[in-house]
Amino acid sequence: MLSCVQGGRRQRDISVKHEKISREINGENNMKSKEHELQAACVKWFSLQYPQYDRMLFAIPNGGKRDGKTGAWLKSEGVKRGVPDLFLSIPRWEYHGLYIEMKYGDNKLTADQEKFFNQATELGYLCLDCYTVDEFIDIITGYFALTNINGIFDLNH
Predict the structure, then answer these.
(1) Fold of 33-145
(2) pLDDT at 28 > cutoff 50
(3) Is 127 exposed, middle or buried (0-12, 13-18, 19+ CB in 10 A)?
(4) Phi, psi of 156, deg, nearest 5
């Protein structure tokens, strides 16, 4: 069981909720998962684990099918192709913030997403794609702890 400590208090309820969410999203209950469900579960976990930073993780609703009028409206407001699904607006180490693109199954980054990742990385942001709740938890806890996750963070560079 995941042991969560925050502000000196044990938060066992987060551990139990994480395990339930993880089982549902990762298909252990024969549940057919989608990116929306994955993202919602990840955001919920973040809100429970880091309530003091709840407003700092937010969705960027760029995806989805829309009618022409709505698409034009959103484009005029600044919606851009390729922008990741989530942004954590908390700087850590050499990064100004963390962009996360949620993916499910065999989905891969689009060409527009790769272009965004490359440009944002050059400007000092960390950009990662994420396929599971457990991966999201590793990304977030690693980002906050500034530890090495599969070679992403290298404190000895």
Answers:
(1) Trna Endonuclease; Chain: A, domain 1 (3.40.1350)
(2) no
(3) buried
(4) -105, 20
